[in-house]
Fold this sequence. Notes:
By secondary structure, the protein is α+β, with helices and mostly antiparallel strands. Helices cover about 30% and strands about 30% of the residues. It has helices at about 35-50, 80-85, 210-230, 240-250, 260-270, 275-280, 285-290, 295-305, 320-330; strands at about 15-20, 25-30, 50-60, 90, 100-105, 110, 120-125, 130-135, 140-150, 150, 165, 170, 175-185, 190-200, 230-235, 240. The strands form six sheets. The protein has a four-stranded antiparallel sheet. Strands 5-9-3-11 form a four-stranded antiparallel sheet, covered by helices on one side. A two-stranded antiparallel sheet has the order 4-7. Helix 1 packs across helix 3 (about 210-230). The longest helix has 23 residues, at about 210-230. The radius of gyration is 27 Å and the shape is flat. The two termini are about 45 Å apart.
Amino acid sequence: MRKIKTAPFLPSEVEVEEIGTTRALVSAYPFESGYAVTLAHPLRRLLLGSSIGYAPISVKIEGAAHEFDSIRGMHEDIAVFIINLKSIRFKVREELDRAVVSYSFKGPKEIIAADLVNDDVDVVNPEAPLATLNEDGELTFTVEIAKGIGYVPSEDLREDVDSEAIALDAFFTPVRKANYSIENVLVEDNPDYEKIVFEIETDGQITPVEALTNALETMNSQLSVFSTVLDIDLESGRRAQSGASSELKSFLVPVDTLGLSARSFNSLDRAGIKYLGELVLMDENELKAIKNLGKKSLDEIQEVLAEHGFGAEFELDEKTRAALESKLAQLKE
């Protein structure tokens, strides 16, 4: 006889088996029947499509005008050179969004990925070949490396790179493999519970566990849209108290609905300010420091704040301030 439940069984076990530095098996269990595949399938898609990596997005080669050109003294033509370059997996030091690095080589020399390591970038496949130079060969080039997700074709990057550079198809995804299997496990004499076993392999830019962590964070941030509507705290899995939620909602009014003049709105928009609550968190000096915000605009914003109950006398208590800062950070991820 089945027992009546008021909530599904909550899984509690996670196991990680690292197989080298780029491959791992991650298991989670026990799930109610049907829940494992419901969670595993979207996580697999996020692993493959939303993991952050680095890739070269353009190259400027001295003496070459286009990808069908050639360089004197280099065995490979430019098309092969570009294929080799795209196969090199870079890591940008300091985790910058972009890096532009220049190189110059003289022959005779077999250039490999390890030769591209410097103070700005590292590589995770140092043995990958790039080009071979004869005794009279010289090769000077500049590569732009960017952080991103998924795949972006060169056609979409041409307007975003140096006009003299060759735009490259960018394969950012650092996850090579993301598979899962579902096994049955026994819980209190019930063999119908399930276990997810993920097999994750990366190219070395990130570890498999980092890839899974990124996928989980992406899933949580995507689902957070429902939390503002349904008053659900996704971190605790509980419905938020209506009083606290109602109070927060009054801070989450979009700036573009406040009826501000174009000058005032444009100043806030350029500063990345999207919600009323961001203005409430600022003191007068911080408001004055917003670029291109003149006295008229400042007065207008302060009037709007007062109209919404956040005038000069209004003070945020620490608990509400912390909750508001957390919610705004979540909305702007």
